[in-house]
Amino acid sequence: MSSEWPLWEVFIRGQHGLNHRHVGSLHAPDAEMAIRNARDVYTRRNEGVSIWVVPSSAITASSPSEKGPLFDPANDKVYRHPTFFDIPAEIGHM
Amino acid sequence: MYAQLVTTEGGTPREGMSDQERAFQERIDRNEKIEPKEWMPEGYRKTLIRQIGQHAHSEIVGQLPEGNWIGRAPTLERKAILLAKVQDEAGHGLYLYSAAETLGVSRDELLEALHSGKMKYSSIFNYPTLTWADMGAVGWLVDGAAIMNQVPLQRTSYGPYARAMIRICKEESFHQRQGYDIMMKMCAGTPEQKAMAQDALNRFWYPSLMMFGPSDKDSVHSEQSMAWKIKMNTNDELRQRFVDQTVPQAEYLGLTVPDPDLRWNEDKGGYDFSEPDWSEFYAVIAGNGPCNAERLGARVKAWEDGAWFRDGLMAHADKARARRVAAE
C-alpha cells in the first residue's frame, strides 16, 4: 500500500487586489506540485493572479467548542462601530 | 441523482433527542452551516460521507463516457471544448472528495470503497456513448439533471459541501449549454444527423429520469436527510422540474421525447409523464448495466497503473526534503 500524498490548503488572490482567499484543498507530493495542481483545479477560469499553498497539517484552528468565550469580548463593544455615534445631519458625511 | 439510493443513518426523533442533538437540529433549522470540527451526530457524518463520496465518484466515473469521444470529436474546437468539460469533471470530483475528507475519511479509503464496489456512482454512467450526438445528449440531459439537484444543494447544511456545490454550479451551466449547442447543430444538419440526435435522446431520456432516484414513496430515509438539510427536495419534485424544463427544449430542437403518454397537465401546471423502468434502474445499480464492468475496470486500472507514478513523486519529494534538511 502506497502512502497517500499530503493535503494542502489553497489560497488564491483574485484579479482585483484583494487578499488571498481560501478556495479549497488538494493532495500533492510537495509544494511545487501543489501549486501546479492548484493552478489546474482552482484557476481554470482566470480566477487568480497568485496562489499560496500551505500544508494542512501546519494550520492551527480555533476550537469550535470555544467559539463562545473566544469571540465574547467583541460582543459588548458596539462603540467600535461608527454607527454607534449620532452625528447631526448638518455636519454632512463623516 | 449523482447520489442515488444513499442509505441515511437513522436519526433520533425530536422528542428523544439529547440536549446536544437538539441544539444541533436547531442550528440546522436556523440555516446555520455545520463546519468540519464541530460536533455532529454520527448518523449525519456517516450519511454525508456516503452522499458526498458517491457524488465525487460520479464526477470521476462520469469522465469516462465523454472521454470516449475526445479523440473523435468532429472539429478541433469541439475537441478543445469537450476536453475542458471533462477536465472540469475531474475538478468537481476533487472539490467533493475534499469536502468528504473533512468528515474524517481519507481519499484512499474513498477510492478503495469505489474500487471494491462498496460505494456506488450514478447509474447514468453505466450507459454507453455510441455516437457524437450522445455528447450533446449527455451535456443537455445528464448535466441538466445534475444542475436540477445541485442548485438547491448550494444551501445544504454542511459548509464544505455547500461551498463545493457553489463552485460546481458555476461551472456546470457551461456543460449543459455546450451539450445543447451540439444538439442544435445536429438538428440543423442533414436528416441523418438529426436522426442521430433523436436516437441519442431516445436512449438517454429514461436513464436521465432515473438519475433522480426512485419515487419518494419508496425512499425510506428521505425524511431524515431532509431534516438534516442534506437533501433539499424530494426525488419526485426534482424529476418533475426536470421534465417541465426539458420538454420545451426538445420541442425547440424539433425532437420527440420518447414517451407516448407525455402531455401537459393544466391543473398541476406541469407535464404528466411515464415513469422509467425501475427494474432496469435496480439492475444497473446492482452492477448489471451495459457498461458497469468496463467503467469500474477503467477506474481500477488507472489507479493501479498510476501507483508507480504516485510513489515516484512521493519518493522524490521525500528525498528533496531530506536534502534540504541536510543542507541547513
TrEMBL record, chain A:
It holds the Pfam family PaaB. GO terms for molecular function: phenylacetyl-CoA 1,2-epoxidase activity. It is an enzyme of class 1 (oxidoreductase). Signal peptide: none annotated. The lineage of its organism: Bacteria, Pseudomonadati, Pseudomonadota, Alphaproteobacteria, Rhodobacterales. This is 1,2-phenylacetyl-CoA epoxidase subunit B. It comes from Paracoccus hibiscisoli. Its EC number is 1.14.13.149. InterPro entries: PaaB, PaaB_sf. Keywords: Oxidoreductase.
UniProtKB/TrEMBL annotation, chain B:
Gene3D superfamilies: 1.20.1260.10. Residues 1-10 have a biased composition (Polar residues). GO terms for molecular function: phenylacetyl-CoA 1,2-epoxidase activity. Residues 1-20 are annotated as: Disordered. Its EC number is 1.14.13.149. GO terms for cellular component: cytosol. InterPro entries: Aromatic_CoA_ox/epox (IPR052703), Ferritin-like (IPR012347), Ferritin-like_SF (IPR009078), PaaA (IPR011881), PaaA_PaaC (IPR007814). Coiled coil: none annotated. It comes from the Bacteria. It is an enzyme of class 1 (oxidoreductase). Keywords: Oxidoreductase. This is 1,2-phenylacetyl-CoA epoxidase subunit A.
